[in-house]
Give the backbone structure.
Amino acid sequence: MKILHISSLPLWSMDGKGGMPSLQETLKGHVKAGFEIEIILPEYDLFSNELKPLTVKNNEKFKIHTAQCPWLPLIKKIRQKIIRIHGNEIPYIYRWIINILVLKLYTLSLVLKALKIRKKFKPDLVYAHNQYSAAAGFLIGRLWKIPNVTRLYGTFLADLMKKPFVSLRYPTAAAGYLMPCSLLICANDGTRGDKVAQKFRIDPKRFCFWQNGIKPPEKVPDTDRSDFVEKYRDKLRKESIWIISCSRLSSWKRIDRIFYAMKFCLDKKIDCQLILAGDGPEKKSLEKLACDLNISENIIWSGSVEHEKIWALMNCADIFMITNDVTNRCNPLFESVWAGLPVVSVKDPSSSDILLNGINSFLCDKDNVHELGSKLAQLCLDSSLRSEFRKEQKKMAHGFKTWEERMEIESKELEKVILKSRKFKNRNN
């Protein structure tokens, strides 16, 4: 069975080596299940403000194709000009027009590339990642008379569904749900994609709402901090309390809340340091905030960290912090629980079944950084409490699926879709 993957997302979001693992793990899972796969990726990062070529590494297990996007440089220039005039908050009408243009033009780029691939690779199914690929998946499926699957990695539509004309006001986000497909797979990441699917009246028989898996390290990471102290010489202190945060440095991740909590602890003379694993557009503003708060010496900017090395960092850390605005139910949280790290976070319904206040975590009001700092300080000062939280995290982690288990479930569903399509073709021939 052959699958053509099409994606508007890079394999790894952070310079080709780190970030969201979902796409990479999906491809690996399909290969392991025995599917022959190839994938089309965009020439550039579609969602960067700059014209940034994607970092693509050769892969011996599947072939990577590049969809040429000759139209994108002009759109990027227009976008930059609008930003210079209006600031980072682009007016809604401009965002609407740009998003529609990118959706339509990238759909064309994907279809044209797929037609070239078709000469040598004839898939049984097309698998579209993200809403910007959904329309192309539908068109390719209809052209070649094969089933198409759409995979969504969360949504922002849940709070907007009660407003009129949602699909017209947010057509690119709605496209992921409304484009006809044989199977719609949506990540249970706290953004309530299942509620959006219900509002759009998606047939439950073709809707899969699954939580991402965990990829445990092949061997138990070393707890010796010496290597990290050596790597970040003159910055990271071996005897300090290590607090870790793993995320892209974006505005909605609200790293500023963590900084204010750190400020509270440092003012109390608590010896703690924050390791920020990640990079992104907010780095400069966060560096300025750290300087203004006089906490810069206790912030370790590790930048993008290869996903395989995150486990070593978590195994050496004492506390994990996540204070996102939209949802905190994400891969870094799953991994921190699996690693047994006590968590300090914000109250968020999306993660309420994972983070239990006072049992394996401390949860604070989103706008109360004083409370956030106070709870962080309590954990820093009480090693026995951290040990209790660790035990509870290990119990919680038993309910998580590994990526291998998660992909076995998906692969079986894809096999059913392909076999059903073949039977239908045979009856009509």
Observations:
- The chain has a mean pLDDT of 91.
- The longest strand covers residues 36-42.
